[in-house]
Design a protein that fits this description.
Blueprint lengths: L3 H11 L5 H8 L4 H14 L4 H9 L3 H13 L2 E4 L7 H4 L7 E6 L9 E6 L5 H16 L3 E4 L5 H11 L4 E4 L13 H7 L3 E5 L11 H12 L2 E6 L6 H11 L4 E5 L8 H8 L4 E3 L2 H5 L13 H4 L17 E2 L2 E2 H4 L13 H8 L6 E2 H8 L3 H13 L3 E4 L3 E4 L1
Parallel strand pairs: 3-4, 3-7, 4-5, 5-6, 7-8, 8-9
Antiparallel strand pairs: 1-2, 2-6, 10-11, 12-14, 13-14
Helix pairs in contact: 1-4, 1-5, 7-8, 10-11, 16-18
């Protein structure tokens, strides 16, 4: 039985992004011995400094009880490092979290091919459209999209995946219930029906600046490859790349083909230095995982090309329920129809709309199309009974 209460207490006492938690699990076959042994056992373990032992002594167990109470109130899951369900890919890094807090249903990340999509918050329209389109296509092929839930590239990646009815994980640099980026509040909620919002920080934790570099190691651990869409010379996306390569030097890195522009200096440099594979479309990513394929049943629109299409299956069994909904119920939700003969702009608008209302302003942000053109396309899609309007100039699939 995992000791959730003790792991939370320990993380509150000595902090995050440390090797201590993994060392503790590997040193003690029964962690009760450590936790119940008190200061003599803590010193005997040889894992902690005098300052850290002082923190352990001064941190009451009630702080953990308060966090557990909050999680229970919001129906958040707490997954400790010694749980058999703790992701192996996360445990295998040097500094895995003592616990992770989960809103939604964490997919079987060890048995699904996952791509981390990262880039600048102040992204160009080219970067946003590319992140959305490529994430959409990857998700259609069963790839899990992992990103950080921030504005710009992160949002475009998550939204592209959701538009494809795919599975996505948002790893936050704050508590999973903290209203960071209110404009993304609905997106975070949508993600919980198609994946999970995850953090190593307890509920209500504010998004301090140093949390984000720490958060990036979890994104890279969850990801089989990192796709850098748009990154300047000092972009945080490059921290994720460095973290990925430190975790596994053979981990695959990708970068979007970008213009000669300061906003793309970091991503272009990755290609120039042969750290990253150049990406012009989603197949450039899938080609690097050519030991995995899907059948026509999974991706029928790709099988018509008369070529050996390398795309990724969903491996492992899907969870029986996601945030209270049975998998059978999810299969009854509206999905995007194929072979509709839509123009490029019409397709962009159509695939920006999912099972939850999307405001016209968000559609404009995703597609980079003017509002007047989007309005006329939305009218046409409504006439074709592909979407319907809801309150406040928002739209959903039907």
């Amino acid at each position: 039985m995992s000791n959730i209460r003790y792991w939370i207490w320990l993380s509150q006492a000595i902090g995050y992004c440390t090797t201590r938690y993994k060392q503790l699990v590997e040193l003690y076959s029964d962690t009760d011995i450590f936790f119940e042994g008190g200061e003599p056992e803590w010193r005997l373990s040889g894992l902690f400094t005098n300052a850290e032992i002082s923190k352990l002594n001064s941190t009451p167990l009630t702080v953990a009880d308060e966090i557990i109470s909050k999680c229970n109130k919001h129906c958040f899951e707490i997954l400790p490092i010694d749980s058999p369900y703790y992701p192996k890919c996360l445990y295998n890094i040097d500094n895995p979290p003592a616990v992770i807090y989960i809103w939604g249903a964490l997919p079987d990340i060890d048995d699904r091919l996952s791509i981390g999509v990262v880039g600048t918050r102040k992204a160009s329209m080219y970067g946003i459209r590319s992140a959305h389109t490529i994430s959409y296509e990857l998700a259609k092929c069963g790839v899990t999209i992992v990103s950080g839930g921030a504005l710009g590239i992160d949002t475009a990646a998550h939204m592209g995946c959701l538009a494809a009815d795919g599975v996505t994980i948002a790893v936050l640099g704050c508590g999973i219930n903290y209203d960071y980026l209110r404009e993304n509040r609905k997106m975070r909620s949508d993600i919980t029906f198609r994946g999970a919002v995850v953090s190593e920080y307890p509920p209500d934790t504010e998004p301090y600046s140093f949390h984000f570099p720490q958060r990036n190691r979890i994104i890279s651990a969850f990801s089989d490859g990192i796709f850098v869409v748009e990154a300047g010379a000092s972009s945080g996306a490059l921290i994720t790349v460095n973290s990925a390569l430190e975790q596994d030097a053979s981990k695959k890195i990708f970068a979007l083909a970008g213009p000669v522009d300061p906003h793309f200096y970091g991503s272009n440099r990755l290609v120039k230095d042969r750290v990253a594979t150049l990406v012009t479309d989603y197949k450039d990513i899938l080609d690097e995982f050519d030991n995995l394929y899907v059948s026509e049943e999974i991706a029928p629109e790709l099988s018509a090309t008369n070529e050996r299409v390398k795309v990724i299956p969903i491996k492992g069994k899907a969870p029986d329920n996601i945030n209270g909904l049975k998998t059978d119920d999810l299969s009854e939700l509206p999905v995007h129809k194929e072979n509709l003969g839509l123009s490029e702009d019409e397709s962009a608008v159509y695939y920006a709309i999912g099972n939850e209302p999307v405001h016209i302003d968000k559609i404009a942000e995703i597609t980079a199309l003017p509002i007047f053109k989007i309005s006329s396309i939305l009218t046409m899609l409504e006439i074709k009974k592909l979407i319907k309007s809801t309150q406040g100039r928002s739209y959903v699939l039907i």
